[in-house]
Amino acid sequence: MVSLETPVCDFGAPAVDFALPGVDGQTWTLEQCRGENGLLVMFICNHCPYVKAIRERLVRDTRELRDQHGINSVAIMANDPSEYEEDSFENMQKVAAEYDFPFPYLMDATQEVAKAYGAVCTPDFFGYNAALELQYRGRFDASRKDTAPADARRDLFEAMVQVAETGRGPAEQIPSMGCSIKWKEGG
């Protein structure tokens, strides 16, 4: 398992459109996912210990961002499921139901959307403002493979609240760290 860090935020970069199948049986596009004040695009998977360490907090924070701040979220799984059965579409459906994901959970089977975004690891977060301009490319919180203490700073949540209120993300951002995306052979 290779651990990688995300690159520095490319402020103002536009969100990339997509049309991907969700675990709910419908196809989702960028336009359908966006919120009034912005959109958080997350590249996650089921098997990664970095994702597992934040899953409950991720559900809490994305629900609060949606309900109180007008920021919607979408999760995209781009790993090659032939490498990790835990990342299969059926298992994505199970995890989404078990954790009551308050966002669409989409399968990027071709991995083209992950490549277009420049995603490198799970979790990898792309926080956009209402104009769908990139304002955050940082970590969720201080969690790594283990969950950070309950009083840890909520980096992503605070940044996205700032984006909702001002349209701009924080100048200082700590990169996200996680498992490398499992690219297909020749990918």
Describe this structure in words.
With 187 residues, the protein is of the alpha+beta class. It has one domain: 3-Layer(aba) Sandwich (Glutaredoxin). 28% of the residues lie in helices and 21% in strands. The protein has helices at residues 30-33, 49-52, 55-69, 89-99, 112-117, 155-166; strands at 3-5, 19-21, 27-29, 38-43, 71-77, 105-107, 121-122, 124-129, 134-136, 177-180. Strands 6-5-4-8-9 form a 5-stranded mixed sheet. Strands 1-10-7 form a 3-stranded antiparallel sheet. Strands 2-3 form a two-stranded antiparallel sheet. A hairpin with a 4-residue loop joins strand 8 (124-129) and strand 9 (134-136). Helix 3 packs parallel to helix 6. The longest helix has 15 residues, at 55-69. The radius of gyration is 15 Å and the shape is globular. It starts with a strand and ends in a 7-residue tail after the last strand.
Amino-to-carboxy terminus distance: 18 Å
Domain unit count: 1
Kindly state the percentage of residues in helix.
25-40%
Class per helix and strand makeup: alpha+beta
The CATH superfamily is identified as: Glutaredoxin
Q: SSE string, helix = H, strand = E?
A: EEEHEHHEHEHEEEHE
- CATH architecture group name: 3-Layer(aba) Sandwich
Per CATH, the class reads Alpha Beta
Which whole number gives the mean pLDDT? 96
Query: How is the CATH topology named?
Result: Glutaredoxin
- State the shape: globular
Report the β-strand fraction as a percent range.
Answer: 15-25%
Number of helices: 6
Q: What's the gyration radius in Å?
A: 15 Å
How many β strands by DSSP?
A: 10
Largest beta sheet, briefly?
A: 5 strands, mixed
- Lateral arrangement of strands in the main beta sheet: 6-5-4-8-9
Domain Thioredoxin: 9-145
Organism: Thiohalophilus thiocyanatoxydans
InterPro entries: AhpC/TSA (IPR000866), PRX-like1 (IPR047262), Thioredoxin-like_sf (IPR036249), Thioredoxin_domain (IPR013766)
GO molecular function, one term: oxidoreductase activity
